[in-house]
From TrEMBL:
UniProt cross-references to InterPro entries, sorted A to Z: ATP_synth_asu-like_sf, Lumazine-bd, Lumazine-bd_dom, Riboflavin_synthase-like_b-brl
Example GO molecular function: riboflavin synthase activity
Annotated organism of origin: Filimonas zeae
CDD domains: Riboflavin_synthase_like
Name of protein: Riboflavin synthase
Function: Catalyzes the dismutation of two molecules of 6,7-dimethyl-8-ribityllumazine, resulting in the formation of riboflavin and 5-amino-6-(D-ribitylamino)uracil.
Annotated Lumazine-binding domain residues: 1-95, 96-192
Amino acid sequence: MFTGIIEATGHILNVTTQGTNKTFWIQSPLSHELKIDQSISHDGVCLTVEEIRDGAHRVTAIEETLEKTNLTSWAAGRSVNLERCMIMNGRLDGHIVQGHVDATAVCVDRQDLDGSWEFRFAIPEQFAALIIEKGSISLNGTSLTIFNVTRTEFTVAIIPYTYHHTSISQVQAGSIVNIEFDMIGKYIQRRATL
């Protein structure tokens, strides 16, 4: 479990493909603190640390993960948001995030408001019931509040700290991001359909 509060950004050093899997070497300020077999959120995707070397760590994404996320477009040099699992004896500053990406969203607009930023995203209509005004969403692993919600779009506002300490600054119109909808909302929707 995660909170959507990003601890650091990492930089992809290398990407290799073996069969239907992709393996990533990521250099970050956290890498030397990680342990083999530890779960880490990478842009909202929970991946297992397989190896640690020289201030970098290696993770692999399998076909199921690649089909539901934007990891197929990851390349060397890209920045990714990183968060270690939450410690259960502390504050939950964001919201409950599993690291299980539900879908991707496309940035349709980005506005610089001279002190903050607004990003508008489009999602597939099948997820309309999972977005609510002032609800929570995980966007590339970052816990954010959504507003100006329609059936297929929502907006997020970004404060300077988040803009400068996560990979959101790289998102432009046309960028594809990973999204995880609020877990409680998913359970409510599931119950309503039974």
